[in-house]
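Quick one, T. Sequence first:
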Amino acid sequence: MLGFIIAVAAGFFTPLIGGLLVDPIVRVLGNHITIEADERPLIAFMLAMLVAGIASAVLVSGTPFWIILGGILGYFGSRIVEAVRKVMAERNAAE
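Structure tokens:
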């Protein structure tokens, strides 16, 4: 369960680590691999999931499924909550 929570947090903070960690990695890999601008969020998400996976392995908590699910829910969490609120508001307005 702790691994899932760590993955949710890592997914949620993925946009914040984008500039801090992705820029140096893109510079290092830029000589060997072409990285497009629209791939930068993916690299940030991969780094966040790598950190979450290592943390869950060190803490012996969580399976790969729950780490991946937690990361996805963390990354899209604010959008999911907003979509649910919108559906509920539309349902209440229709009644």
